[in-house]
Design brief:
This protein is of the alpha/beta class and 361 residues long. 42% of the residues lie in helices and 20% in strands. The protein binds 3-isopropylmalic acid and magnesium ion (MG). 3-isopropylmalic acid (IPM) binds next to helix 5.
């Protein structure tokens, strides 16, 4: 029996998370797996009720779950200073990562062949890419010392990037483990010509690499890596990097595949506890219209089976059910091409229904 805590998220959050739940229920029925859901209040929903975006009662509920399924948190850009939304990142998103020590963040980019024309990058460059970004998530500049001081030149603010050997080693091991089941290459990305923290990453990761002689370790500076990701993304298999560089590179990488509405992420701590969420935001402009693409959230369910429940059969089944839905020509608005008569434009719910149908076949 697995208990999945559901933090539905804001705006399109409940709509797309609802489709992931439908797919999880279908998988549960098909494989007689044993899944139970627990809805947990957080973000806007919690603020409206308790004046807090991540109340203690919700944290306690999260602790009683095996994994968390999270929708996007956040409000519209024009309300960024509204007290309801201004504290979402530092009041809810980062604390969730830190409290549960979710130090490994996984984001993947794969080409989905039916959608290849949606990418702004040339077809032959992206055809066949399969990249797994392993981003450190609970340290580095996001959580380093920070402050503000007065200087003769006005206020000065600082954020410190720091990493210790333990933090680097534990995520490096994971990256090599994942690489063993893939193309056996890890590319470490840093800025070791400037930052001593990057030099430490190179040293520690170099030591760990000796335990994995089957895996090739490569190193790239962040500036070059940002360029290589567009020029020749097929050279990457597992990308290992810091919190800040991983944040930037993962947005860049998502562009390769066409729509940001397609991608899930996993944030994993010790002992398989994980938080699964789309990589995109809450899209207030299309909320409540049954228009959002639920694929990112549905694929969170797939990642959950793979990385927390260690069941690749169900994970692949979910992924294949999504791909089959694309092959059959179903598209939500973001991926619809009205000039292609073979495509059928559907809403969030109808797309989810098709995925369920394919899964149960
Ligand atoms: C991400 C997001 C977050 C981050 C924000 C919302 C705090 O951009 O998950 O990539 O910077 O980590
Ligand atoms: Mg980001």
């Amino acid at each position: 029996m697995k208990k999945i805590g559901v933090l539905q998220g804001d705006y399109i959050g409940p709509e797309i998370t609802g489709e992931a739940i439908k797919v999880l229920e279908a998988a549960d029925k098909k494989y007689k797996y044993g899944i139970q859901f627990d809805f947990i209040e957080a973000s806007g929903e919690a603020y409206d009720k308790y004046g807090e975006v991540l109340p203690n009662s919700s944290i306690e509920k999260c602790k009683s779950c095996d994994v968390l399924l999270k929708g996007p948190f956040g409000g519209p850009p024009e309300l960024i200073n509204d007290p309801k939304w201004s504290n979402i990142e530092r009041g809810a998103i980062l604390p969730l990562r830190k409290i549960f020590n979710l130090y490994t963040n996984l984001r993947y980019v794969k080409t989905i062949k039916e959608l290849i024309n949606f990418s702004n990058v040339k077809r032959d460059v992206i055809d066949g890419i399969d990249i797994l970004i392993v981003r450190e998530l609970v340290s580095g500049i996001y959580f380093g010392e920070s402050g503000e001081r007065q200087t003769p030149y006005g206020r000065e603010c600082y954020n410190v990037e720091s990493y210790n050997e333990h933090e680097i080693a534990r995520i490096a091991k994971r990256a090599f483990e994942y690489a063993l089941n893939r193309k056996r290459k890890v590319t470490l990305i840093g800025k070791s010509n400037i930052l001593i923290s990057s030099i430490l990453w190179r040293e520690v990761v170099g030591e760990i690499a000796k335990e994995y002689p089957e895996v090739v370790l490569d190193y790239m500076h962040i500036d070059n890596a940002s360029m290589q990701l567009i020029l020749n993304p097929k050279q990457f298999d597992v990308v290992l990097t810091t919190n800040m560089f991983g944040d930037i590179l993962s947005d860049e990488a998502s562009v390769l595949s066409g729509s940001i509405g397609l991608f899930p992420s996993a944030s994993i701590g010790e002992n398989d506890f994980g938080l699964y969420e789309p990589i995109h935001g809450s899209a207030p402009d299309i909320a409540g219209k049954n228009m959002a693409n639920p694929v990112s959230s549905i694929l969170c369910a797939g990642m959950m089976f793979k990385y927390s429940f260690h069941n690749t059969e169900i994970a692949n089944d979910i992924e294949n059910a999504v791909n089959k839905t694309f092959t059959d020509g179903y598209r939500t608005a973001d991926l619809h091409d009205k000039n292609d008569p073979s495509l059928k434009k559907v809403g969030t719910k109808e797309f989810g229904d098709k995925v369920v149908e394919n899964l149960l076949k």
